[in-house]
Design brief:
alpha/beta, 10 helices, Rossmann fold, 2 domains, six-stranded parallel beta sheet
């Protein structure tokens, strides 16, 4: 039997935290190993709980998600953190990325999207809610278009990356092998001089390389 993904919730609102707990309890691949109402409590429980993935609120009393993320990743560098936010808090995205998060989701996400995000992040990918991509595109869109000489297939892969597709989903959508998709992803990283998919998505949106509408 495959090991379950160990989840910890860091959220100051009791009602939302309780709802997340119920969702996680209903997904058989996940195991809830801890919860905290702020970043300080979370750091105190981190070693004992030993989560694989943390669902991290951003705005919390005592210690917010930004500081908690930075300190947690110094304690446990391999920890994967998905930031949870509401509309209007997208300004924290770049700061959270700099601190080392693996995903960024709106709190009104569906159960299926939450499960998908956790599975992708657990597998070593990054995840943005599609709504976040659209909002980011409006906020950071530049007034110029750079020419990287991308092929049509590279643009297709980039567009789907920005929509949060996994390699397997892109392969099915574009009628290509997963290995071919990974090759396109590697070339896109090289051409844009980015180090990971998350930064690639931001780069693509900022420089008008794709439309996510």
């Amino acid at each position: 039997m495959a090991e379950k993904i160990r989840i910890m919730i860091v959220e100051d609102h009791d009602l939302f935290r309780s709802g997340l707990k119920r969702v996680i309890d209903e997904i058989k691949e996940l195991e809830l190993v801890g919860e905290a109402e702020n970043g300080a409590v979370f750091l105190g429980l981190l070693a004992k709980s030993n989560p694989d993935i943390v669902l991290m609120d951003i705005k919390m009393p005592v210690m917010d998600g930004i500081e908690a993320t930075e300190k947690a990743l110094k304690i446990k560098p391999g920890l994967k953190i998905i930031a949870l936010t509401i509309f209007g808090e997208e300004e924290y995205l770049f700061t959270m990325i700099q601190k080392g998060i693996c995903g960024f989701m709106l709190k009104n996400t569906s159960i299926s999207e939450l499960e998908r995000a956790i599975q992708l992040v657990s597998a070593g990918h990054q995840y943005f809610s599609p709504e976040i991509n659209t909002l980011l595109a409006k906020k950071i869109k530049g007034d110029f278009i750079i020419n990287l000489h991308l092929t049509s297939k590279e643009r297709d892969v980039l567009r789907l990356l920005c929509k949060g597709y996994s390699s397997s989903e892109m392969a099915s959508e574009l009628f290509l092998s997963k290995r071919t998709i990974e090759g396109y992803r590697a070339r896109l990283l090289q051409k844009t001089e980015q180090t990971n998919t998350l930064n690639l998505v931001i780069y693509a949106l900022k420089h008008n390389l794709v439309s996510v509408n």
